[in-house]
Specification:
The complex is a heterodimer of chains A (257) and B (267).
Chain A (H helix, E strand, L loop, with lengths): L6 H4 L6 E13 L8 H5 L10 E13 L3 E5 L6 H9 L6 E6 L3 E4 L12 H11 L4 H15 L14 H13 L5 E4 L8 H16 L3 E5 L3 H7 L2 E6 L2 E7 H12 L1
Parallel strand pairs in A: 3-7, 3-8, 5-6, 6-7
Antiparallel strand pairs in A: 1-2, 1-4, 8-9
Helix pairs in contact in A: 4-6, 5-6, 6-7
Chain B lengths: L14 H22 L5 H22 L9 H22 L2 H4 L1 H6 L6 H27 L11 H25 L3 H15 L11 H7 L3 H11 L8 H32 L1
The chains are: A alpha/beta (257), B mainly alpha (267).
Chain lengths: 257, 267
């Protein structure tokens, strides 16, 4: 795993490829309780697919250049979140290749890394550390993380005693402080109050202005138009349209009408 | 706009330092959670082997008075019981390595072997922290210490290889075959009596002694015991056990690599 990028690929030259997805396919079991065998478990990538499996994504190819803001659209269950997870490299494809040449700040299941029994302070250090920040770097950003989340009074409260809104807030501010060049956003921001959501969106705009690459999954047309310039439209696990966001949304609207 | 929004320079640090960094973070988290939620903390991790040692000491020296092991028996017991707690704890926790941390694994892309290795490391640290208990009993009961004590670290190394190998096999398989969780518990209980913990390999019937070497724990425990009981050191057992441990580690790495893709989909 780790970075596939060579030294040359990491040079910050505007417009180089940061994500390359090549003929990617991934299949899942239709029935989670389906019978398994040892043969299944160790079968390599070349195994033929079986009747109780379906391809969540198949034959998807695209590249993303540095600084692009991409919105992924499609109906429920068409592979949007799976695509995001593939780019975050938290699942691996059965076919094709996913190359991610820069660090990624994934806003996917953001509260997942937080431990109930530890205090907010410990959790911030833990999560930031798992995403590659050193202790010193966290020290330097600690204030701004806490300020952003507006939970200064709860630093030593065990995480489990926070309200669900506070949990999302602190999780978002940790990831948003990561200095990674690629940001992945799944519909996490649906939680939290309106004021905080607006604050998150402004933060994403700031990051975009700073040259970050954005990968955004949403059903909200307004949000998509606000951030994204390019749209990927997924239907039945295939990439059916790749182009300007307005055209992608129009195509989506036409299909669902 | 703050400085943090500017595009950062190329990333620092190689894969290996990042691996160590993440491994250490999660290990520390494990220890911290375990000790922040219980009042007695450290005491618990030594109380368990102490109570067990007390029971076996009573049964075998006070009730039966049948000579097994060596004198002082309490040192003989603890020198294998404490490392057994490390092995037992790591393997039984590895059955839940992926299931318990599913949310975190789904959101970070750190190398997946860390989820298993952190268990071995945190239990290993607890083992090292329990060595003073062994030292205390050795002094208290007047055990003779000899130069073979230098093999103690080799025992730790060999056991680490063995434990990592076994946990790399168990952890991914349990995700697919949940029944394995209970099977592992049962196997561990069997292994406790099948390993030279409450007895030494010399106490076995002659025809079984050759086979005992194929339990890698025999070699490991003989290294730990050598410093107090020089006649327990058996290089044949250490050699066979070491070889078995390396083979298990190789199998573990293979199983883990081949099943990683499926594990990530399943959790």
């Amino acid at each position: 795993m780790g970075d596939v990028g060579s030294g040359a690929a990491r040079q910050v030259a505007a417009g180089h490829d940061v994500i390359a997805v090549e003929k990617v396919g991934i299949r899942f079991k239709r029935n989670r309780r389906a019978r398994r065998s040892f043969k299944d478990l160790f079968a390599g990538r070349t195994r033929r697919s079986r009747p109780d499996e379906f391809w969540a994504l198949r034959d998807v190819s695209f590249t993303v250049k540095q600084g692009e803001a991409i919105g992924v659209i499609g109906r429920n269950g068409q592979g949007k979140s799976t695509l995001l997870k593939l780019v975050a490299e938290v699942v691996l494809p059965d076919e094709g290749r996913v190359g991610v040449f820069e660090g990624v700040a994934p806003l996917i299941e953001i509260t997942g890394g937080f431990v109930d029994d530890l205090s907010v302070r410990d959790n911030v250090y833990l999560t930031a550390g798992l995403h590659g920040m050193t202790r010193k770097e966290v020290d330097a950003r600690f204030e701004s993380i806490i300020d952003f989340a507006e939970i200064g009074d709860f630093l030593d409260t065990p995480y489990k005693h926070l309200s669900s809104g506070m949990r999302v807030r602190i999780a978002f501010s940790v990831i948003a402080q990561l200095e990674e060049p690629i940001i992945l956003v799944d519909e996490v921001l649906a939680v939290g109050d309106k004021g905080f959501r607006e604050k998150c969106y402004r933060r994403i705009e700031e990051l975009l202005a700073g040259g970050r690459t954005l990968f955004f999954v949403s059903h909200n047309e307004r949000d998509l138009r606000r951030f994204c310039t390019r749209g990927l439209y997924l239907d039945k696990g295939r990439l059916v349209f790749d182009g300007p966001i307005d055209d992608a949304l129009a195509r989506y609207a036409a299909d669902t009408a | 706009m703050s400085a943090a929004t500017q595009l950062p320079p190329a990333r620092k640090g190689g894969g290996w330092s990042r691996y160590r960094h993440s491994l250490w973070l999660l290990t520390r988290r494990d220890l911290r959670v375990r000790y922040s939620t219980s009042a007695l903390g450290y005491v618990w991790s030594i109380l368990d082997p102490l109570v067990m040692a007390g029971i076996y000491w009573f049964v075998f020296t006070q009730v039966f008075q049948r000579p097994v092991g060596a004198e002082p028996y309490i040192v003989f017991l603890l020198s294998a019981l404490l490392p057994w707690m490390w092995f037992n704890g790591s393997v039984s926790d590895s059955t839940r390595a992926f299931l318990r941390e599913a949310k975190l694994i789904r959101s970070t892309k750190i190398p997946r072997t860390i989820w298993v290795n952190r268990l071995v490391l945190s239990k290993g640290i607890e083992f090292v922290a329990s060595i003073p208990v062994l030292a205390f009993f050795a002094v208290f009961s007047g055990a003779a210490v000899n130069v073979d004590l230098v093999w103690f670290p080799l025992g730790i190394l060999l056991q680490a290889v063995l434990t990592v190998g076994v946990t790399l096999i168990v952890a991914p398989l349990v995700v697919f075959f949940r029944d394995l969780e209970r099977a592992v518990k049962l196997a561990l209980r069997f292994l406790f009596y099948a390993s030279p913990i409450i007895y030494g390999t010399h106490d076995l019937p002659a025809e079984l002694q050759g086979w005992a070497a194929f339990n890698p724990l025999s070699g490991v425990f003989s290294l730990y015991r050598a410093g107090f009981f020089p006649d327990q050191l058996d290089w044949y057992q250490v050699g066979v056990g070491g070889l078995m441990s390396l083979v298990l580690l190789a199998i573990g790495v293979l199983v883990f690599q081949r099943s990683e893709r499926s594990v990530l989909k399943e959790i």
